[in-house]
Amino acid sequence: MAISITEDYPRVSQNHLRFTIDVHGTPCATTVTSDPEVVRKWLRKTLYRYARFRHRLVVGLGVQWRPASYRGEKPPAATLQLCVGRRCLIFQLRHSPTVPNLLRHFLKDPNYTFVGMGNHSDAEKLLESSEHELEMARKPVNLSRHAVSRHDGRRLDARASRETIVRECLGYDVDFNTRIGRSDWEKYELDDEQILYAAVDAYCSFLIGKDLRAWEFVNICTAIWTQEQDLWAQEAQEQEQNFWEDLWAQEAREQDQNFWEDLCAQEAREQDQNFWEDLWAQEAREQDQNFWEDLCAQEAQEQDL
């Protein structure tokens, strides 16, 4: 069966759209909005519905942004996708004036396990490049590293595409078109293709994370993240230590250079002083010699007279 999208009418408002996405026979209710109040209500209803799973709640998460316009540019997060059960939310961050506190608490709650595919930079995008600075309690679980085939139980290659992961784990044929993934996610009205792309990505991530019981190995991911942070801190300390060692070595070289320059200058002064002293002594001896010679000559003349 194919994947399809249908908009639900009547529209609630221009920035609150509802769609039904059929994923191989399973309907998924999807909300697209830039209204913080709509996001708050969606979260309250979702958390109430799944309250009994509080300590093992899996949340499919995705972040989209527009392509970079030039080398080195880091475009901000444009949309945030969340999916729990058959409920998906596409929050247009770039068009929202603010973010509800409930969403901030939701992302920072360590009881929830956020999962995604190829999501190594999603947490950084939300925190560093989003004007709303959304912080997560920990990085979302990257399912690419944990996916297991439903056919033979083998661990999939960590470099496997999302299409391969979804097919092997769920049995769905899904096309995550690169053209759509790299389209303009900052425009006010998203295309049906973009909505389908974002919602299916979050929904499939939720299903795979739930099947893998991602809440059981999230501690491992946290330990890895902590280890990475410790490694970064150690590297920073080593770089700082190397900086000071290089600085001290440079100062030592400069001091050594100054020492030899001062020594050479002192020797030059001493040599110059000795030169003049020798010259003066020689002149004194010559003057003394001339004096006695003149005196002897004068005495000889007087004797002749």
Automatic annotation (TrEMBL):
Gene3D superfamilies: Ribonuclease H-like superfamily/Ribonuclease H
GO molecular function: 3'-5' exonuclease activity; nucleic acid binding
GO biological process, one term: nucleobase-containing compound metabolic process
UniProt KW keywords: Hydrolase, Nuclease
TM helices/strands, residue ranges: none
SUPFAM superfamilies attached to this UniProt entry: Ribonuclease H-like
Domain named 3'-5' exonuclease: residues: 30-217
Domain of life: Eukaryota
KW NAD (keyword) present: no
GO cellular component, one term: nucleus
Family matches, as PANTHER family: 3-5 EXONUCLEASE, POLYNUCLEOTIDYL TRANSFERASE, RIBONUCLEASE H-LIKE SUPERFAMILY PROTEIN
Protein name, UniProt field: 3'-5' exonuclease domain-containing protein
Organism expressing this protein natively: Rhododendron simsii
